Amino acid sequence: MIRLEGGGDPGGRVRFAGWAGEHVRFALAERVATITLDRPERKNPLTLESYAELRELFRQLPYATDVRAVVITGAGGNFCSGGDVHEIIGPLVRAQEAGDTAALLAFTRMTGDVVKAMRACPQPIIAAVDGVCAGAGAILAMASDLRLGTAASKVAFLFTRVGLAGADMGACAILPRIIGAGRAAELLYTGRSMDGAEAERWGFYNRLCPPEAVLAEAQALAKQLADGPSFAHGMTKRCLHQEWDMGIDAAIEAEAQAQAICMQTKDFARAYHAFVAKQRPVFEGN
After folding, report:
1. DSSP per residue over 186-217, as a string?
2. What angle do CA 6, 67, 25 make, to 5 degrees?
């Protein structure tokens, strides 16, 4: 269950310092939230409950006042092994055998809602990936804004290995934009895994890190972003997402409007005055 403590303000903003989850761990330090999938004995598989918890958490983040960047990772040397075979796959097969198409569609829409919520929240999301990153776990990494990995990690969109389409949770829309259409098609058709070196070479990872340092480096990068102009970062994320289906003229106009809005922020003026004074700007996100 999600629990928010510390209250809100009249504008509907909330503080996340007291967020508590039953299926994922949450920590907040220096305006960086770290979300940890925490079933290390099973390589952190997702359950119906953890899917729902992630969905609700990311849906609340647009209203957070004390979170400016997010890191998502897994406990115990693995990121996420995908949907739990016993707690998700088994019930889905039983629903299929019972002809309960409505239940199957409800599940696939719910999992897709996690990705929608990740893309809609204004904070940059950084995935710190080590070990197994498969199935829905690979989707969580894909849906993040940035990805840091390790050489030993294995990323696999293995849906076809279990008789399903590679089209899952937005993979056919998002993955080609990260690594290119041909490479995405190969991974989604075959379900094969990428090691860390290939994932970096193909552009899935922004960089590789030592296993013992990947989380710390992701948090350091998140802290760098959290110290930046968070309103402008949210605008950048929104434009990156919305301009996927725009023509160039529409994109240029959208960015003109977005930039004009950012020019009305105090952070824009802070940056100018700091430059004039030969000081480093201190951004406050407004």
Report:
1. HHHHH--EEEHHHHHHTTSSSEE--TTTHHHH
2. 80
**What are the φ/ψ torsions at residue 212 (nearest 5 degrees)?**
-75, -10
Strands annotated E in the chain: 24-29, 32-37, 69-74, 125-128, 132-134, 146-149, 154-156, 193-195, 207-208
Spatial distance between the Cα atoms of 37 and 23, rounded to a whole number of angstroms: 7
Per DSSP, the three-state class of 157 is: coil
Give the span between the Cα atoms of 169 and 184, in whole angstroms: 14
C-alpha closest to that of 61 among 109, 28, 38: 28
At the top level of CATH, which class does the domain 24-226 belong to? alpha beta
Cβ 97 vs Cβ 60: under 8 Å: no
Domain boundaries, the chain: 24-226, 230-276
Look up tokens 């979170």; give the residue. Answer: 67
Asked if 67 and 16 touch (Cβ cutoff 8 Å), the reply is: yes
What long-range pairs does 104-108 form, CB within 8 A, spacing at least 24? 107/48, 108/168
> Residue 132 corresponds to which tokens in the numbers above?
């197994």
Q: List pLDDT tens digits, range 66-103.
A: 999 999 999 999 999 998 888 888 888 898 889 999 99
Residue 77 parent element (H or E): none
Tokens 């003109």: give the residue.
256
Give the global pTM.
0.91
pLDDT (0 to 100) of residue 268? 92
DSSP annotation of 80 reads B
Report the chain's terminal Cα–Cα distance, integer Å: 31
Could you report the per-residue pLDDT of 228-244, keeping only the tens digit for each? 999 999 999 999 999 98
